[in-house]
Amino acid sequence: MPGPLDGIRVLDLTAALAGPYCTMVLADLGAEVIKIESPAGEVTRRVGPDPEPDGSGEPTLGGYFQSINRGKRSIAIDLKTDAGRHQLLALVRTADVFVENFGPGVIDRLGLSYAEIQAVNPRIVYGSLTGFGAAWAGASPYAEWPAMDITIQAMAGALSITGTEDGQPIKIGPGIGDIFPGVMLSSGILAALLEAKESGIGQQVDVAMYDAILALCERIVYQYSYTGQVPRPVGNTHPILTPFDVLEAKDGWIAIAATTQGRWKVLCSIMGQPELVDDPRFLHEGLRAKNRALVRQIVAVWVAEHTRDEVTSMLAGRVPVGPVNDVHDIFEDPHGWVRDMLVRVDNPGSDTRAVIAGQPIKLSRTPSAVRGRAPFLDEDGAAIRIELNVAASPVEVTS
Asked: I want to staple 244 with a disulfide (CB 3.0 to 4.6 A). Which of 87, 200, 214, 238 is the partner?
C-alpha cells in the first residue's frame, strides 16, 4: 500500500548516520528516495557487521548500511565531473526534496548550495544537517568544526547529566547525537513540503546536531534558568521525581517509576508497607524528592527479594515498570514483532534474512513500512538515467 509520501521524490546526498536516518524515515513513509553516491560508495557500505556468506559469491550488505538505507534506490554519480553534475541537475528538476549532510565547505565547493539548486528547481525543499548549522540561521563560532555523535553529546549538554552519581559522564548508548537531529530534519522537511504545496516555492531547512541535542536536553535549560543550579549526573534516578530508578532484582535489573501520589500509594500497598503513604517524610512529591536516597533504599530492598518476573507481574498495569531487556530479550518479546518494530528484509549473498528496526510512526490509511532492503551501489543507476534521458553510460563504481 502507498505511504503518505507516495509521489514525493527525495534526492539523498547524505552519508554516515544522521542524514541517512532522516531520509530513511521519509522512505518508510512512502517517498521515493534516490541515494546519490560517489563511485566509491557511501562510507557505511564498508562498515559491518557483515552476514555470513552463502558461498554463491554474490555481494552482501552490511548491517549498518541495511538498517538505515532500506527502501532506497542507488545511483553512483561523480559530482566532480561535468557529466555527473549534468545528471544530478536533471534529477533536481524532477525532485521535491534535496538532503545533504556534507562537512564544512564541501557543498559550496561542489556548486550545490541551496541558491544553486533552487535556481534549477524553485519549489524544491532543501534539507541540510551539519554539526553546528548554516550561517543564515545563526553563525556558530564552531561552524567549521567537524562533528560526531559523542562530541555533540558532550557539547550540547547530554553528557553533563548522563552518568554515575559521582559525576563521571557516560555516553548515551544509541547514537542520539546523529539520530535525533535526523528525525528533527525529517520533521522540518515535512513542514516545508506542506508549505510549498500552498506557495509553490521551496525553502531551506537547517538542523544543527548541537541544536537538536540541546533541545532534547530541555530540562537542564529551565532548571538552570529557574534555580541557578547546574544539573549534574544522578545515575539512573531523576533529579526531580522519585521513585524513578533502575533497581537490582534476584535475577537482573528492573526499572520502576511511581512518581505521582496515586502510583506511590499503589506501590506502597503492593510492597506491603501502606503506612509509608502517611509518613511525614513522604507525604508529597517534593518531600519524596528531598528524601530520594531513603525512598530508593526502601524500594530497592523490596525489589531485591523478588525476581524480575515477580516484580513485573505485581506492578504491571498499575505502576510503570519494565525489565532491563537486552536485544535477545527484545527478540523473544512479542511486542517488537506484532508492532512491526522487528522487520525481516532480504539479505543477498546470505542464507538468512536480516532483521532491522522498524518504523515507529504508524498511520491507519496510508501506512508506513520498511519497503525493501538497502540497494547495492548504483543498483538503480541505469534505470534512473533512462528515466531522465541522460547519458546512459554508468559510472565505473569502485566498491
From this structure: 238
